């Protein structure tokens, strides 16, 4: 099918006309606190799944539910949220595009520092739609559904068959998803020609990009325990091995303040930097001021924007995330915790593999702990792991996306990698043997996973146009 410019222009006009409807729809789903990592909020993840099923029914999308089973979390056996598989159109003469998104979100509390209630969508004077999940990933999911609705209102046939995969556990390790994808590779997904995921962000705030690589992630917890109960530091300080002291020591042995990973063997498998890759950095629309704006500070490790990008997406990093069991409330409490749990993650890059990372981490922490001579006990556990991913940006799928960006934004997109992790990209690539594309809707300053997460109205509306234009452009490509 060739790209029909008149049809695309009608679609763009319809999106503009209905933009307030789309904002209200986003407000409705942001109000559902679908936090997958909180036991008390697991029912809300199911509620979000129910909302999606009703919306798919309204849009005449054929769908099935795949039950990924149960899992253990925080001492509870919990039902995993449903994986929703959809199909809009099954014309054998058309290409079939698979789109993926997740309907769960990160935790958010007003007291974390939010300027507004995190689960109430607020549009501020800058046109920012502020609320948890607005950009990660409820806005992009709605973008696909809004595109279907706009075509229906115009009486326009979608130029491709649209296959869908929506899950509710991405922010908590995507448990059960890989099994479903592998099981459906020759079933629900058997006719898929290309995959598109809109769950990442522009490199900066002014120019769209297309992303062809992501870092992987290995997330760890270190549990250190000793006393049978919490102790009074005035009575027992200086007489017992304190778990918190041991943990602070171990944390100090993992990474330097300049980001150097201290675990032996971690850097051994990092793919070497090629001349072609080195030459790809200078043309990118990015400078340190963009990064400073995104973090609301100027405390970057690197003085060069190119070195900063390399640190962000082409080299591994180790980040310390938090400590459970430690006193953190206001005031002074002189307690020695009986058990503490430290959490950290390693972002991995090609050609690193989770199994090798795990071996290095467990061996090193046990060796360092042994040096302490502590009578406490240490346990190291990898909570979840995903491999890094890189795709070919010369594939027609990427050509289609670049053409769509030019139609909507009138500029050529940057081709980028990214530092975040979306393990499902590699799963789709390996299971389906099809090209996978990341086509972001939001900006680098959106604050996904942070306080005051937002999606600019302009990105939401123009992003909906972009997703629709991409489908038209894919329909005209030869695979």
Structural class: alpha+beta
CATH topology of the largest domain: Aminopeptidase
CATH C-level class of the largest domain is Alpha Beta
**What kind of sheet is the major sheet?**
6 strands, mixed
Mean of residue pLDDT values: 95
Strand order of the largest sheet: 1-4-8-5-9-19
What is the tally of beta strands? 20
Uncertain spans, ≥5 residues at pLDDT below 50?
A: none
Number of helical elements: 14
Could you estimate the helical fraction of the residues in percent?
Answer: 25-40%
Binding site for substrate: 199, 232, 334, 347, 421, 449
Binding site for Mn(2+) 1: 136, 171, 449
Site (Important for catalytic activity): 232
Family: Belongs to the peptidase M20A family.
Features:
479 residues, alpha+beta, Aminopeptidase, Alpha-Beta Plaits, six-stranded mixed beta sheet, 20 strands, globular
Structural summary, described in words:
Belongs to the peptidase M20A family. Its cofactor is Mn(2+). It holds the Pfam family M20_dimer. This is Peptidase M20 dimerisation domain-containing protein. InterPro entries: ArgE/DapE_CS, CNDP/DUG1, Cyt/Met_Dipeptidase, Peptidase_M20, Peptidase_M20_dimer. This protein is α+β, with helices and mostly antiparallel strands and about 475 residues long. The protein folds into two domains: about 5-215 and about 390-475, Zn peptidases (Aminopeptidase), CATH 3.40.630; about 215-270 and about 315-385, Alpha-Beta Plaits (2-Layer Sandwich), CATH 3.30.70. Helices cover about 35% and strands about 20% of the residues. It has 14 helices and 20 strands. Strands 1-4-8-5-9-19 form a six-stranded mixed sheet, sandwiched between helices. A four-stranded antiparallel sheet has the order 13-15-11-16. Strand 2 (about 70-75) and strand 3 (about 75-80) form a beta hairpin. Helix 2 (about 20-30) crosses helix 4 and helix 5 (about 175-185) runs parallel beside helix 13. The longest helix has 21 residues, at about 135-155.
């Amino acid at each position: 099918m060739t790209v029909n410019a008149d049809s695309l222009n009608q679609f763009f006009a319809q999106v503009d006309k209905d933009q307030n409807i789309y904002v209200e729809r986003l407000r409705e789903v942001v109000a559902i606190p679908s936090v997958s990592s909180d036991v008390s909020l697991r029912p809300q993840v199911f509620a979000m799944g129910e909302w999606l099923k009703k919306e798919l029914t309204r849009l005449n999308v054929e769908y099935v539910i795949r039950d990924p089973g149960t899992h253990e979390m925080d001492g509870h056996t919990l039902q995993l949220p449903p994986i929703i598989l959809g199909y809009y159109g099954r014309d054998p003469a058309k290409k079939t595009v698979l789109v993926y998104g997740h309907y769960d979100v990160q935790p958010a509390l007003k007291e974390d520092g939010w300027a507004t209630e995190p689960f109430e969508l607020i549009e501020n004077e800058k046109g920012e739609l502020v609320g948890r999940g607005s950009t990660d990933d409820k806005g992009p999911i709605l973008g696909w559904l809004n595109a279907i609705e706009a075509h229906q209102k115009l009486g326009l046939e979608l130029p491709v068959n649209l296959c869908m995969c929506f899950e509710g556990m991405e922010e908590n390790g995507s448990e059960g998803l890989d099994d479903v994808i592998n099981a459906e590779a020759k079933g629900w997904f058997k006719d898929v020609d290309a995959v598109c995921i809109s769950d990442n962000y522009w490199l900066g705030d002014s120019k769209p990009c297309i992303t062809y690589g992501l870092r992987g992630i290995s997330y760890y917890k270190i549990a250190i325990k000793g006393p049978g109960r919490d102790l009074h530091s005035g009575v027992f300080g200086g007489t017992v091995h304190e778990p918190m002291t041991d943990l602070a020591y171990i944390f100090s042995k993992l990474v330097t303040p300049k980001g150097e990973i201290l675990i032996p063997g971690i850097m051994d498998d990092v793919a070497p930097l090629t001349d072609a890759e080195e030459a790809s950095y200078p043309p990118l629309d990015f400078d340190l001021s963009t990064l400073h704006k995104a973090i609301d500070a100027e405390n970057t490790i690197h003085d060069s924007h190119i070195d900063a990008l390399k640190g962000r997406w082409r080299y591994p990093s180790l980040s310390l995330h938090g400590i459970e069991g430690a006193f953190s409330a206001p005031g002074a409490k002189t307690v020695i915790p009986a058990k503490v749990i430290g959490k950290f993650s390693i972002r991995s890059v090609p050609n690193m593999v989770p199994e090798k990372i795990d071996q290095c981490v467990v061996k090193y922490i046990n060796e360092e702990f042994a040096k302490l001579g502590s009578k406490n006990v240490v346990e190291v556990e990898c909570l979840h792991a995903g491999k890094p991913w890189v795709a070919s940006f010369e594939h027609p799928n990427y050509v289609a996306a670049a053409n769509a960006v030019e139609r909507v934004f009138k500029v050529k997109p940057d081709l980028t990698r990214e530092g975040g992790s979306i393990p499902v990209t590699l799963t789709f690539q390996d299971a389906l043997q099809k090209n996978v594309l990341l086509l972001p809707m939001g900006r680098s300053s959106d604050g996904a996973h942070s306080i005051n997460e937002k999606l600019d109205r302009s990105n939401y509306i123009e992003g909906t146009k972009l997703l629709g234009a991409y489908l038209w452009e894919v329909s005209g490509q030869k695979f």
